[in-house]
Amino acid sequence: MIENFHAVIPAGGSGTRLWPVSRTARPKFLHDILGTGSTLLQSTWERTVGLAAPQRTWVVTGRGHVDAVREQLPDLLSDRVVAEPSPKDSAAAIGLATMLIHREDPDAVIGSFSADHSITNTGEFLSVVEQAAAAAAATGDIVTIGITPTYPATSYGYIETGDLLRIPDAPTARRAAAFVEKPDAATARTYAYSGGYRWNAGMFIMRAAVLLELLEEQAPALHAGLTRIVDAWHTPDRDAVQSEVWPTLEKKAIDYVVAEPAAAAGRVIVVPGDFGWDDVGDFDSVAKLRQPVPGEVHGVSAIGEGVDVVDVESRGVVISETGRLVALVGVEDLVVVDTDDAVLVTSRAYAQQVKEVVARVREAGRDELL
To answer: How far apart are CA 163 and CA 181, in angstroms?
Structure first.
C-alpha cells in the first residue's frame, strides 16, 4: 500500500449506451456486465485493495444507490460512502470527497478511479499508480495516467505528452503538453500511431491540498459551495445544508474544471499505462472484452446467469436476464440484450447509438423503462 494514499471511487452515471441492462435505478457499475463473476464496482474495489486500506477508500455515489453499493462492498466503511443528492459530474463528486479527506488527513495523496471501467492486468495497474503517487508527492502537480492507444479510437479524449521528467521513483513520467478532445477518425489515426499521445482514462492522482488549491483558483463558486457542505458534514445540519447547496453547484467534469487549466499552466504529469484498460462504454466494448477466442471467425459470447444460447455460423454477444433461449443464425457482430421488460438487438458498429433509443423512450414517456 502507498503511504497517505486515499482511493476515491466515483460511482455515478447512468450508462445509457448499455441500456436495457443499465438503468437509472441500477446503472452499469452495479452489474456484472462482462460476466466475470464480479460487478464493475466490485472489480474496481478489488483493485484498490492493493493501494489503500478500507479506512482510506471512499465511494461517491447517488443517494439512490447507497444501499446497493454497501451491499456489494461489505468491507466498505459506512462513513466512507459519500452520497450525492443528484448527479453533478466528477468535479463536484471528487472535490467533495477530497475536501472530506483533507480535513482528516492534510498530507493525503488521492487517486480517483471510476467504478465502471475494466482493467485486465491489475499488477501493472498498481505499479503505474505507485509511480503516479510518487510523482504527485515529489512535484505537487496533478498526475494522470495516459493509456497507450491500441487502435485509433474516436470515443476517447487524448493527452499529448511532452518531455521525460526523470523523477527517480517515476521513471516513465512525462509532462502533459495538452488535453485533446475526442478526434475525428483521421486525427485519431495520427494520434494513435504517433507515439506522442495517450488516451485520457480520467484517472487523476494528486495531493489533496493541491486539488483543493486548484479548485479554489479555477472554480471558486464550486469550492465555496463544497466548503459549506463539508463544514456541516459532522453536524445535525448536514442534510439540510447539502440539499440547499448541492443544486447550485456547477455540473462539470474535473478534466475541464481543473486538469485542462493545470495542463495549460504546466502543472500536469502523465504516467503511461498499458494494463488492458477499457471504459466499457458500449456493447462493442463488451463484445471486444468477451470475444470467446481471439481471432476466431465465429463464436457467440453468452453473459448472464443461466443464459441459453444456440448459434449457427454467428458471431456476437448475448446478454440475458430471463433464461429464455436465444438463437442466432448466420449473423455477425450482433448484440442481443434480453431483459424482463425490454429486448435490444443491435450491431457492434451501431453500439454508440443505443443512447438514442433511451432518448426516444424518454420522449415517449416510458419512464418505467429507464
So the answer is: 21
* 274 CB-near residues (< 8 Å, 6+ apart): 124, 147, 148
Length, in residues, of the chain: 370
Q: Which residue type sits at 90? A: S
Query: Among all chains, which residue has been given the C-alpha cell 420522449?
Result: 363
Contact 283, 346 (CB under 8 A): yes
State the helix-helix crossing angle for 220-231 and 208-218, rounded to 10 degrees: 130
- pLDDT tens readout for residues 307-323: 899 999 999 999 999 98
- Of 365, 279, 362, the closest CA to residue 23 belongs to 362
- Tracing cell 462504454 back to the chain, one arrives at 281
Q: Which residues contact 136 (CB under 8 A, 6 or more apart)?
A: 109, 142, 143, 205, 206, 207, 210, 269
**Once rounded to an integer, what is the mean pLDDT over residues 81-105?**
96
Q: What is the pLDDT of residues 283-307, one digit of tens each?
A: 999 998 987 555 544 588 899 888 8
d(CA 340, CA 307): 13
pTM above 0.90, yes or no: yes
Mean pLDDT over 335-357 rounds to 95
Q: What are phi and psi of 319, to 5 degrees?
A: -120, 120
